[in-house]
Design goal:
By secondary structure, this protein is α/β, with parallel strands linked by helices. The chain contains 6 helices and 8 strands.
Length: about 220
């Protein structure tokens, strides 16, 4: 295996109850619980992947969606390389709130940041309860320059691993581009201008998951 090792900070953001924790547990632990307790602050997991004999670690931060935690949670956005912006396909309000989460993320990261953001519509298994129109979703993703849109089901696992694989591939591609750009810059600054030389370009406080005893904070999938 190549000694090269890369790590990326990834956020999962969105309203409470949209299934952020369930998506993370499905991918990392391959398990699903019908009722999960609302995240208090942030929770954290990581997973290692190997691609082309290189190791990549995703440090995944599952953030609380309740309004009372918003100021605390936003502090954890810093230095994120990517984010999943999750809404509930059966809850139109959670989709309407996606703009807030997107703006909060971009404001915290600053103008110079260019994170990869994948829009995720969860609970696709509840086909008879879908409340968000596909064309509205596509329009939102296009208008706000999101990397892609994925429909998932944390309950049955549909497209969950795929959304993480897709994100990883985008991160690897972006990282490769940055490394190539660095190589070109280095070569151009060290090569005398009078000599034409071929250039070889070679192709991110851990939170705590606390149990919330209040009944209203219990959220499904």
């Amino acid at each position: 295996m190549d000694d090269a090792y890369f790590k990326f900070k990834v956020l999962i953001i969105g309203d409470s109850g949209v299934g952020k924790t369930s998506l993370l547990l499905r991918h990392v632990d391959n398990r699903f619980t019908q009722e999960t307790l609302g995240t208090i602050g942030v929770d954290y997991k990581h997973k290692t992947y190997v691609r082309n004999k290189r190791r990549y670690d995703l440090h995944i931060w599952d953030t609380a969606g309740q309004e009372r935690f918003r100021n605390v949670v936003s502090a954890y956005y810093r230095n994120a390389a990517a984010a999943f912006l999750v809404f509930d396909l059966t809850n139109k309000e959670s989709f309407d709130h996606a703009l807030y989460w997107l703006q909060a993320l971009r404001a915290q990261l600053g103008e110079g940041a260019n994170p990869i953001i994948i829009l995720v519509g969860n609970k696709i298994d509840l086909t008879d309860q879908i409340a968000v129109r596909h064309r509205d979703i596509q329009q939102f993703a296009s208008e706000h320059h999101l990397s892609s849109y994925v429909q998932t089901s944390a309950k049955d696992g549909a497209m969950v691993d795929k959304m993480f694989d897709q994100l990883l591939e985008k991160l690897i591609t972006k990282q490769s581009g940055l490394r190539s750009s660095t190589t070109v810059t280095s070569a151009s600054t060290t090569t005398p201008t009078s000599v034409s030389t071929p250039t070889s370009v070679s192709t991110i406080i851990v939170g705590v998951k606390a149990k919330n005893k209040q009944t209203e904070d219990k959220k499904c999938c």
